[in-house]
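QA checklist item 7 of 12: single-chain prediction sanity check.
[x] sequence parsed
[x] length recorded as 986
[x] structure emitted
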Amino acid sequence: MGRQGEQAAFSEALQQSPEDATQFLFHIRGPAGVGKSTLMRQLESVAREAQALTAYVDESAADVVETMEAVSAQFAQQGVDLKGFGRLLTTYRQRRHEAAAGGAAAEGAGEAAGAGRGAEPQGPSPLSVIVSQLGLAGLGMVPGAGVFTGAVDPNQLAAGADRVKALLSARLRSHEDVQLVMSPLQALVPAFLQGLGEAAAGRPWVVLFFDTYERTGPLLDGWLRDILVTERYGQLPANVLVVLAGQPRLDARCWGDWLDLVTDLPLDVFTDAEARQLLAAKGIIDEKVTEVVIELSGRLPVLVSTLAEARPASVAEVGDPSGTAVERFLKWEANPARRAAALACALPLELDEDVYRTVVDDEEAGEQFSWLRSMPFVIDRAGRSRYHDVVRSAMLRLQRQQSPLRWQEQHTRLADAFRQRLDRLEEGTAPDDGWWADDRWRTYRLQETYHRLCADHRAALPSALRDLLDAHDHDITTLRRWVRTLIQAGHDVDAGAVRKWGQELLTALDGPRPGISALTLLLSRGGLDSSGQCLGRLLRGWEHRRLDEHEQALADCTTALGLDRTGRALRGRGESYRRLGRHAEALADFDQAIEREPGIVWAFESRGVTYHSMGRYEEALADYTRAVDLDPGSVWVLGSRGLTYHSMGRYEEALADYTRAVDLDPGSAWTLGSRGVNYHSMGRYDEALADFDRALALDPDSAWILANRGATHRLTGRYADALADLTRAVDLDPDSAWPLANRGETHRLTGRYEEALVDFTRAVDLDPGSAWVLGSRGQTYRATGCYEEALADFDRALALNPEAAWIIADRGVTRRLAGRYDDALADFDRAVELTPDSLGPLVNRGVTHRVAGRYEEARADLDRALAIDGSSGWAHYEKAVVLYAVDDPEYEAYCARAIERCTPAPGHSTADTASDVGNLVLVHCLMSDWATAEGHLAAFVGCGPERGQLRELLVVLETLRSVVPSAEGHLPSFRRRLQTALDASR
């Protein structure tokens, strides 16, 4: 009755063409009991009559994921299956379970080609740590429910997200699985919208109803706004309507820019005319009876409807107007058994027939339960029934006040019934990670907890607070549900202490450090027993470790061990020691854990990670091998052992492990990427690129795979492809030094020195301890003639890695160019000592001897270099220069050999052999064959050499001025031509 205007507005919207519709979001609002849910049900009936596909969601859905799941399930009941979303949701549940039950994480060292990857070891229950710290899907930290984001420092959130990603990478099969668990909305919402689009194509309208939005709005606001007014997750079909029902106005912080798109439907109590209309429809036309009902109900629709249900024919049948409303609700029911049943069934949070039988001693329970479900104050959805909040609150107050003893007995009876359900369930096989992973078990446990609190909150509160630790250990959604139930129990039993606990915990969970704040409350004031203190300390220790607060984590885990020396406590402290670099103490804890439980996989994994971090690869291999024996199907353990083999340079064995891991999980981008890195290190670039391509097809936004593919492209001379990959990697992960340094190196090799210096400098700022980056920046400075800056970088790099032969040799070249020949020779001596079979240091030492006038020493070095590589055109040319300088006619033979070695083979692109063509220019200059040299110079410039090759030829030509007498007349024109080409290449 009433609400005709609201129904008309909705019906009118359904009659419009979706393309022309201007109304797509309706908001029904008003105080409790005003009829919002009743109107929602009526509008749903209107939509169904119009052949619309509908779904109804209330506060029973605890977060965005459960909301989409509820919609999908209701669509399926109407013959529409969101198959793609359902499959992905199943995968999400499985991967979330694996994240909670998985082994310790990997930690690997980076290689020059970017093999490095880091991962966090597993916490006692990583999901609780992840979401309690960062507030992910259930709390809106991923795009969706944005109400909590303002409580978290953005820098802390970004850093925490990186740590979460590393943590999960160690547990799950692939990067996409990590993203699915870490940011489920990013994957699930597009799949949901795609399914919604397919469903909407077969119906005139799809209508989504969200009831009790005052409770769910804080969690659903951002997500709902995004799918309605943005294309963040995809496009919402035009024929989708959304109806919200809640007490307050919509949150202006979320909806402020779009409030003009909302059709606002404010509801108030019935007008006098509307109340009379309803009473008349129920057959109540006596004016005195009508006045009594209106007075008692205050025209609140749910109360008017309830009082009218008995169709009282006289004031006497309504009762004394001064009595309580609840007494009036029940007085019209003449059957005392039904009256008692209606009161008793207000006690449970939710009703089904089994709960009804527990509460009501009734032989005709089935029939009576059907009667109760027909009452106007009973809301029924998908087999679950509950009382309207206004009616239930009033009935609870009445029963609590009338008979405290009866109140206690009934709640105890309900608690015992749910305990029996738990006991029956526990007769079966428990899930691998305990009963808290079972949805039904958690539901029964929560109901039992509620009724124990209502029966005797003083006795039950310690146990309820202890349960909060286990709820936190499961995940944040479970913890929040438990806290809400604590608040509900405190309100229903009028227990200030219980209600205060719930409110304080809820405030903590909404703050910037939710896990730590909630756990600190419980540890400091929760009266926890030894077991609870131990678990609470362990959980808080993992929270601290997630924030890199390792000293605090160590303190908590040490305290936990003093309470209970479990393997879990040993693991917690061992991981804290490892993060602090106290590896010996970490190993001691892992040793104890293995001694206590020799067959536990995680202990070998964690000890293996520690050994790897210490560079004790043989011992790490032994532990990983033991872990593989215990769990041969673990992709992560195989990958971690492969990484250790790789770090030892045992690439074939690493390849075997990676290949086995790929065979076990061909959809793992991480495993494919790791094998690609291994192929890269083996010089098998085509196979590396094939693995990187496969990995990126699975995970297109993986910065580390893109960086490694870019580095591989660079080594194969595909500079444009390298820059494309590396730029994409930098865009995805701007705070990682590795992609930046690789892009800088690519810029250097292509002569883009200014761009190279920008990238290298930024990489040095991010990772000042990288000798490779400093050495590469030093090479770039040298190429631009900034010798002092180059030498400073080489010195810094060698302080970090004193035996890096390539950096020592590059410093030698720079010192030679700066005229510091003795210092240069000292560097080349050391480089030759470290790499006696390397061509570069020997030839460069020979060149240095030559420019210093030490021709015999130069000849000896070049002969030794040619003995190592007789095909080197560079070495033959330098030997010819030395022989020319000492008037040895044999120089012509070396010139001929240099020409032979440097002439491109038929069919080869001169662009790929620009260095050889440049050497041909130098050889013919040495022979004073200026016409041929000029022809080769034209060919060199015409084949499009990189800027670095142009600049290098310019520098080397200058060295001929003091060697070839006729050079002065020809070199200026050569220099001008090269400089013009160099300027044009910018």
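[x] summary fact logged: Residues 905-986 form one domain.
[ ] second reviewer sign-off
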